Amino acid sequence: MMTHILKSTITKTGMTVLLGKLREQASEGKKKKKKKKPKKKKLEQGDPPRTGLSKFYPDGIYPVGEIQHYKDDNTWRTTSEEKRYQEKIENEDPETTYQSIRKAAEVHRLVRQHARKHIRPGMTMTEIANNIEDGTRALVEESGLEAGVGFPTGLSRNNCAAHYTPNTGDTSVLQAGDVLKVDIGVHVKGRIADSAFTLTWDHTYDNLIEAVKAATDTGIREAGIDVRLGELGGLIQETMESYEVEIGGTVYPVKPIENLSGHSINPYRIHGGKSVLLVKNDDQTKMEEGDYFAIETFGSTGRGRIVESGEVSHYARVYDAPHVPLRLTSAKSLLKSINKNFGTLPWCRRYLERTGESKYLLALNHLVTQGIVQDYPPLCDQRGSMTAQFEHTILLRPTVKEVVTRGDDF
Ligand code: HZT
Ligand code: MN
Ligand code: MN
Question: What residues does a divalent metal cation 2 bind to (predicted)?
Fold first, then answer.
């Protein structure tokens, strides 16, 4: 008779423990063969991923983001009994908030993982946006204002840094020489995961990518309770400016884009009021316990300044707009639809059309003119320049900093 060599491991106490299936076989005295027990199909996210995340997390407990500890004199926060107690019971149930944030972040990781693998030159910008947004809607289990897309998918190219997404009928095609910023938003109960990365198909831009990745990591590492926003900008700037990139025989310094910034995020409000510029400045405002921040940096081979340029796609209702009586009935009706479908979350023309709206442009422009809706035009540096972006969302918990959108990719 054959003797099977069983896989085993020696524990700290010296006991030999049989591993996995082999342990079952050993205890039951069965031979190594596939069992015919009625087994459930193993649940797997498909390709493209379209299975709602609650199927994988039936207890509603989602993976924790990357934990970073506060620096130096802030280390007491990690150990303080009082702080841990606070985090557990005080406030308005932080655990619920954390699970919403973590579900949104996990959807973000899965959607972008698929996007990174499938985005290729030759695809239309519309195809790319639809793929990403279809994935988000399915995985987050889109439901009214309870869960869904957090803001329009940013697909800005080259000198354009932010806030381009295709409008309906856009047939433009991604080019092999493009520097593409993919900025994806996912929300659960208004908690928005806001994270972005840059894709290229040409190694020319590798240093530009590395510069911006490092600058964003600096912003994340140096962020913390009581950190001054103006100083954080200086640290981001130092990192970014330590890089240069050679393009066609010319060496360019990598410049932080001085009029773009990271931002705090409040429930259903993409910009919560605090801004993190990418250059040193005298903003004495401090980050605070409980703050939720999108740390994003942009590097450029151009002037390092953006201007609004091109057709608008992004919009959001002004969060605290005063009531304005509207005479234009089309604008009144459009505002009702915006309130119902998006509330104060940002949206784009394509999303309006999904809700059944058509020929809405006059009414929409009226709402913008009346200060009820804010338009967000594409933001671009000078022609011929290249810009890159990396962004993560972080949560300043009482005891530790959680980089909620961190993945194995960036
Ligand atoms: C505005 C409109 C949107 C917020 C940053 C951002 C994409 O540039 C204070 C600081 C989506 C987002 C935003 F449709 N912006 N993050 N990801 N865009 S921002 C801003 O307007 S406000 C930065
Ligand atoms: Mn973003
Ligand atoms: Mn952002």
Answer: 194, 263, 296, 391
